[in-house]
């Protein structure tokens, strides 16, 4: 009986030794780390919307011009003698306009041409005493302006566009001298003209809906120098230099 127990114990020990030997042999190459699944999907980042500003549009504006600086000084035609500075025409007044345009868009950048026509009451008159014992009036009025503008902007938000303005323009100008002398006589001469110039400015546009937006703009318009000659006092001339600043509110309709 004792021999049987000893034999069974030896047999159990041999089995345990064999199992331990097998485990050690299986791990003889070192520690094997567990397999970790690294296939992680990166989150999708969506770009911020920029809004749709491209396409054709038409609109209208209401504005007020101010700060014109048209210096008036007369020179004798025959002798070239400068007769002096008569004053400064500060052109200003209400105006209204219509325009049509087209815009392209590249990401947030928006650009395109705009053709506009404006008319109103941009004018001024100066009065001074003349050498004949009377007074003289010099007046200038911009009847209308036809302009081709290039507007280039950046969409700050899908509904908000900030842009710059640069363009060429042609103004129809009414220019007049009228006066009296000490004996009760009077005279009046008009020397109307058309002059080319330029326009620069800044603007902002805010969408009210997909097809309607409001605008606010500041512009400076300058129409160069144009010589005007009058028959008064044997012939005198002056250089008309119309310019003005203009602030405008507008409404655009996208097609």
TrEMBL record:
Organism the protein comes from: Paracoccus denitrificans (strain Pd 1222)
Residues of the Outer membrane protein beta-barrel domain: 50-255
PANTHER family linked to this entry: BLL7405 PROTEIN (PTHR34001:SF3)
Stored Gene3D superfamilies: 2.40.160.20
Signal peptide: 1-28
Protein name: Outer membrane protein
Principal localisation: membrane
Entry's localization field: Membrane
Keywords: Membrane, Signal
SUPFAM superfamilies associated with the record: OMPA-like (SSF56925)
Protein family per UniProt: Belongs to the Omp25/RopB family.
Keyword Signal recorded: yes
Any one annotated GO CC term: outer membrane
InterPro entries recorded: Beta-barrel_OMP, OM_autotransptr_brl_dom, OMP-like, OMP/PagP_B-barrel
Organism placement in taxonomy: Bacteria, Pseudomonadati, Pseudomonadota, Alphaproteobacteria, Rhodobacterales
């Amino acid at each position: 009986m004792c021999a049987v127990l000893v034999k069974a114990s030896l047999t159990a020990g041999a089995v345990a030794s064999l199992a331990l030997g097998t485990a050690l042999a299986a791990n003889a190459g070192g520690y094997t780390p567990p397999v970790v699944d690294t296939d992680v999907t990166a989150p999708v980042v969506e770009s911020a919307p920029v809004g749709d500003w491209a396409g054709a549009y038409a609109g209208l504006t209401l504005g007020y011009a101010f700060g014109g600086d048209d210096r008036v000084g007369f020179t004798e035609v025959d002798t070239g003698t400068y007769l002096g500075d008569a004053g400064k025409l500060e052109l200003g007044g209400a105006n209204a306009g219509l325009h049509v345009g087209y815009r392209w868009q590249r990401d947030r950048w928006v650009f395109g041409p705009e053709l506009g026509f404006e008319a109103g009451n941009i004018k001024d008159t100066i009065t001074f005493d003349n050498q004949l014992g009377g007074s003289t009036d010099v007046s200038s009025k911009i009847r209308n302006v036809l302009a081709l503008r290039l507007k280039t902007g950046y969409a700050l938000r899908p509904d908000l566009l900030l842009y710059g303005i640069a363009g060429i323009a042609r103004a129809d100008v009414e220019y007049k001298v009228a006066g009296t002398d000490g004996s009760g006589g009077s005279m009046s001469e008009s020397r109307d003209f058309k002059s080319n110039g330029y326009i620069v400015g800044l603007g902002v546009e805010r969408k009210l809906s997909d097809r309607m937006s409001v605008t606010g703009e500041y512009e400076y318009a300058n129409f160069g120098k144009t010589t005007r000659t009058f028959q008064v006092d044997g012939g005198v001339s002056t250089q008309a230099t119309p310019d003005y600043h203009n602030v405008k509110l507008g409404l655009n309709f996208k097609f």
